[in-house]
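# nightly structure sweep
# worker-07 picked up a monomer target from the shared queue
# config: single-sequence mode, recycle default, output format = structure tokens
# input follows
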Amino acid sequence: MPTKHLKKLAGALALASLSLTAQAGEAVLDVYLARHGQTAWNLEKRLQGATDNALNDTGKAQARQLGEKLKGVSFSAHGKGLYAVDQDGEPVRNGIISSDNRALPIVRAWKAQGVDRAAYPYAYQQVWAGHPVSLLAWLKANEGDSYRRIHRILMAHDWIRYRLTGDFSAEITNISGSNLFNQQQGAFDPTLFNIFGIAEMAEKAPPVIGSAECAGYVTEQAAVRCGLKAGTPVFGGLFDVVGAALASGVHDSSCLSAVAGTWSIATRVFDCIEPSDYPYVWGKYCIPGTFFVHEGSPTSASNLAWFVQQFFPDLPDSYRQLNQWAKDGYEKDLNILFYPWLYGSNFHDSLHGGFLGLSGHHSREDIIYAIYQGIVFSHLLHQDRVQDLGTGSDFIRFTGGPTHSNIWMQMFCDASNLPLEIVD
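# output follows
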């Protein structure tokens, strides 16, 4: 990993929103964007998003009006994790999110035994602690009662669809990253269940549906609870990584989709799984007949958020100030390295976060710049790797919270040496 200051490379930074202009004779699709209904914080002009704020009376009326007009609903959700339910459709335990590491000892044992290599020709996945397969194995070993009560294996948006419709299904862009799904066959594979020692779970797999496929209709009970109109169609939806790529207009390998948020993710789309000696992570893309390859780890802006919460919880207008400090550091020749591995490493699973080269003369501004830079460097591990497949992408489309920081986007662009477009 380089230790000197990022050089000002020739990559051009395009801080512009994407637009799709219809040509003469082409069909035009009208897209309507709806925000959440009004809350008290809106009236107080307070930033929200990470806080679960209730709608006020105006917001509730807005939600009801929107529910009447919607002709269908769908959504994206995080990948990996486990949301298992029993025969009655009730959770067998609390859901487990993708960044959970409780199954890490099991994953390490599998790697030592070559289980991951045995599974790869079928699943085309690396093995992570947050995979459904890893969490199922953990439940089997540690929470036997919960494991035995499992009736259906679901991921996050599969659970939400079930609550809306009463029907079980597994959406293809998400479940294809479960390590239980055969990429070439396009279906759950009992061979994989056997390899991972959870053969009895094969019969608990729900039907697989496409991203744009109707999964069912909003029930009367769900309509009362959420405000949607009973009978509204509910469609498959998307793995959030795929959702970011699709919203960025990515449909082939010429463009790389980059996401920075809780995770740092680089994604490209291909017509087939490209052969390689490296175990790339592949999945079914939302366009039938195509695949997406992605590299990712929880090494992105969540590391900065942790630092701010711990050391600057009362900093006024915190992110404007952080961006200014990072901009000041950008002009210096600093040699601090930050390893953004507070929630997991993309270099080795036994490594942890920290600073290298920190000295007594360094200021808080220098440390903030090092955090910004370390997250950029970590992202490049993923981006450079997927760029090695086939002919590299010609440009990058970037999404996620850090896109609101001009200096951070300039740093990403400098390091990538590619044109970078921000999706607005």
